[in-house]
Amino acid sequence: MAGGAARARDSGGRIREGPEGHQGAAVQDHTVLFVDDEVNILKALQRLLRHEPIQVLAASTPADAFDLIDRYEPQVVVSDQRMPQMSGVDFLSSVRDRHGDVVRMMLTGYTDMTIAVEAINKGEIYRLITKPWNDDELKATLRQAFDHYDLKAEIKRLNQVTREQNFKLQDMNKNLEEKVRERTKQLDGKNQELRTAYIQTIRALAEAIDAKDAYTRGHSERVAVYSSRIARQLSLRKDMIERVYFAGLLHDVGKIGIPDAIITKPDRLDDLEYAEIMRHPEIGAKILEPVEFLRSVVPCVRHHHEWYDGCSRGYPDRLAGDQIPLPSRVIVVADTVEAMTSDRPYRKALPLEAVTRELHKFSGTQFDPVVVQAFLKLLEQEGDSFISKDQKFDIYAFIEG
Predict the structure, then answer these.
(1) Grouped pLDDT means (10 residues each) for the chain, 401 residues
(2) Does pTM top 0.70 for this prediction?
(3) Is 80 helix (H, G, I), strand (E, B) or coil?
(4) Which CATH code, of 1.10.600.10, 1.10.3210.10, 1.20.140.10, 3.30.230.10, is assigned to 212-400?
(5) Which residue in 174, 292, 334, 350 has the most C-beta neighbors within 10 A?
């Protein structure tokens, strides 16, 4: 069996698998547990990972999975969503409650995106994996998950070390202060890596949204990049630039709740379809509200389609001027620029001259004039190079640069 696993069937015919020769053999550093009621899926996963330096466990029921978790303490648990005894969302939520340090991931299909969002909120999953999976991507995701687990364990250890050192500081001489600063630097670095992992999860969700329409693939990332650059041109604080970036990545998350037939329609939308798609800012805000570290992003997502003059064409609340969050005013300019310079089913990408005419035309009505001027200043400095479809972007390197 894959990963050195031995298989046995209980009286109900369910698969319960554990590592062969567990007591006598050398224990692997990393263990993953797959939970799926389809035995063929479990076998395929075991075959895929049989040469990887990890221990692979498999269970076809949540009850057996909990038994294996208690016995072998895996660092990573990957669960299917649709199981007869318990949904993947509820199972991963229970794993979180019982074994909070375990890295939880969900195996799902594109049609399960709304459930995946529920899993992010309720089960606090680290990553979602779509069926059918790409073998290399699955292996890479597992390696990242183990790194994430090790990272959190290291942060916990460093926190404990820091607490212990603080109790001893009064008895230490000045030569030890440098060591404390070094420990703090290490801890800051680990926390930064953990935040980067959160960004990867956000980016994965944004990519899944964009993937619903081949013409918008990469749209959310580009809007986030353009928005961040405009925000820096406006001399915003570092924390505000970060907020603008997150909001740009997630501005269209509400499209999860819009029918695919509308999202992928090759022609212009009719009135009823447009009314439906106008709901996506509110849907997006409701999706993000339960996520604590994204709380400040919620109003930015909700109001990114308001018009600066407060006219009836803005939605959902017809806010005007400074009532609209500044990140929203930045995003609507970046969103317009990205949309106009990208191919659509009904037209080819437009030149930058057309974009600047549009921004001048609607400056003060749809767009904040200050934001428009910041973008035009960037365009004056960089020209066509500002619009890049293959930018490699690190938000924190950008903020500090």
Answers:
(1) 39 43 49 94 95 95 95 94 87 91 83 65 76 90 92 87 74 66 79 72 72 69 93 95 93 88 84 93 91 89 97 96 97 94 80 93 97 95 77 72 69
(2) no
(3) strand
(4) 1.10.3210.10
(5) 334
